[in-house]
Design brief:
It is a single chain. By secondary structure, this protein is an alpha/beta fold. Helices cover 46% and strands 12% of the residues. It is built from 21 helices and 13 strands. The strands form four sheets. Strands 2-3-4-1-5 form a five-stranded parallel beta sheet, sandwiched between helices. It has a three-stranded antiparallel beta sheet with strand order 8-10-9. A three-stranded antiparallel beta sheet has the order 11-12-13, covered by helices on one side. Helix 5 packs parallel to helix 6 and helix 6 runs parallel beside helix 8. The longest helix is centred in the middle third of the chain and has 38 residues.
Length: 510
């Protein structure tokens, strides 16, 4: 079994016989739908770009790449169409003028490649350039073009990610003022970028109304920006929460069993896991499921994060592959401003309308965590309400790390050395060393808003253990007669139970 974790090119994957999880049945369903303009929101690193690359090969008539896949078995005719494939992830975003020119320049480059002609206009106006390109392609080929757009919300997310606290601020008040100013600027840039993107998608809507577009598919991470971007282009069918397309990205349990289970078993038989921590096939599969499975967009089927799953199988090492690939930094300010919500995310409710009515200037924390992949559906939609949960161990560890880093006074990395010492003390049953290190750690903390009390230390110790590479950690573990605050295991024969108590001494009267 050949696995690539770097290529998002369907053409390259198929020509080099890399593992490909067949999603073409979903594309066939889209092609047979009465609508022809679609949008899909999924967290980063979930296979959206590969999905678009697959569509590109379909519309480009590359029939030979689909041997043995679902689409080919349906006798699809693979009529070649002109395809405009765009990505807004790296488009300049610092102002709406930069964004306007960035979209315009990308269209000019694509137009030159497809037609050999210039579609430049004196105003550098991207709606005009797009209309010109579509007209030329339709006249030249007699077939309506296809438009594929990856990471439509890149200019908005990138602008929001620029919120940082000034290192020159002398006091906490100055630091907060600086951050508030930067946040306001970032939100203003995001709003302007949303309006500029709205002009682009409104143009696609107009072209489609004139029967000049065969098919369009748009992907992104966030749904909060859709309200402002697509208000003038509301003909795009949003399939993000459509149960028929819940598994269009990621790897389901059935897909894992079909494509990966037997090859992994063979890797064990061939001795490829001999020098790893994994002693047997069953334990490895159980650990894979606990670590990376658990996402859901219908409340029924559970989905693996493909990036983390495939990297783990290829490298034979458990790591936070998804988390290390990058996290939106603007989440930090939501953690700081809403710590009570951040500390209670094991199971939360979210109204379906909260997803559809967000804008860049009015974001809500829980929907944002859902869109970015830190929360997922625990149950199907019921009474217009979603029940959300943290999907798996990787995301839980990443979320605790994110929350603690945002709330702890010092950098989290400064405390990792303590983590190693404390784990060593546990392993050696050295309670004196354990107590001394915990006391030193707590004395150094300038920790959390005081009103969080015991919950703040609870969260920090959880994250602390995570940073020390303890994998089996349980919070609020139910037992007969109550719950244990924290439980963790270091091996199959040793478990530690931690009970946290808040001490509030009464002031003495003199």
């Amino acid at each position: 079994m050949k696995i690539t974790t770097s290529s998002i090119s369907f053409n390259k994957i198929r020509k080099n016989n890399f593992l490909y999880i067949d999603k073409t049945a979903f594309i066939k369903k889209l092609l047979n739908d009465e609508d022809n303009l679609f949008i899909l929101q999924r967290p980063r690193r979930f296979g959206k770009s590969l999905l678009l690359s697959t569509m590109f090969s379909i519309f480009n008539g590359e029939a030979e790449l689909f041997d043995g896949l679902d689409l080919n078995s349906s006798n699809y005719d693979f009529v070649k169409s002109p395809v405009l494939k765009l990505s807004f992830m790296t488009t300049p975003w610092q102002s709406n003028m930069q964004l306007e020119w960035g979209i315009y320049n990308q269209l000019c480059e694509v137009g030159k490649k497809l037609t050999g002609l210039s579609i430049e206009n004196e105003m550098k106006d991207h709606p005009t350039a797009l209309r010109c390109l579509v007209d030329i392609l339709k006249d030249k080929t007699g077939i309506e073009p296809v438009i594929l757009v990856d990471e439509y919300d890149g200019p908005i997310l990138n602008s929001l990610d620029q919120t940082k606290t000034s290192d020159d601020a002398k006091t906490a008040k100055e630091s907060q003022t600086t951050e508030d100013t930067q946040t306001a600027k970032a939100v203003n840039t995001a709003m302007n970028n949303a309006k500029e993107l709205g002009r682009f998608f409104a143009t696609i809507k107009e072209l489609n109304q004139d029967d000049l577009i065969r098919f369009a598919f748009v992907t992104g991470v966030s749904k909060f920006s859709m309200t402002s971007i697509f208000s003038g282009a509301n003909v795009f069918a949003d399939i993000s929460e459509n149960i028929d397309y819940a598994n269009i990205c990621g790897i389901t349990i059935d897909e894992f069993d079909k494509h990966l289970k037997i090859p992994i078993m063979k890797m064990f038989d061939d001795g490829l896991f001999n020098n790893t921590e994994f002693k047997d096939f069953e334990t490895f599969i159980e650990s894979l499921t606990d670590m990376y499975d658990g996402y859901s967009w219908d409340g029924f089927d559970r989905i693996f994060n493909p990036m983390s799953l495939l990297n783990t199988v290829k490298n034979r090492q458990f790591k936070a592959y998804w988390f290390r690939s990058g996290t939106p930094t603007f989440l930090n300010r939501f953690v700081k401003s809403q710590p009570d919500i951040a500390l209670n995310l094991e199971q939360v409710e979210m109204g379906a309308n909260e997803l559809d009515n967000q804008t860049a200037e009015d974001l809500s924390f829980v929907p944002l965590l859902y869109q970015t992949g830190y929360l997922t559906l625990a149950h199907p939609l019921e009474k217009n309400t979603y029940i959300l949960k943290i999907p798996n161990i990787e995301v839980k560890n990443a979320l605790y790390h994110l929350i603690t880093k945002a709330l702890v006074g010092k950098k989290l990395g400064n405390y990792k050395a303590f983590g190693k010492k404390i784990i060593h003390a546990f392993r050696e049953n050295n309670m004196e060393e354990l107590q001394n290190n915990l006391t030193t750690l707590i004395n150094q903390l300038q920790l959390f808003p005081s009103e969080l009390g015991e919950r703040a230390f609870h969260l920090f110790i959880l994250t602390f253990l995570i940073s020390a590479d303890v994998e089996k950690i349980y919070s609020e573990l139910p037992i007969e007669g109550g719950r244990v605050d924290i439980c963790f295991t270091l091996d199959e024969r040793k478990a530690f139970l931690l009970e946290l108590k808040e001490f509030n001494p009464k002031p003495q009267t003199i």
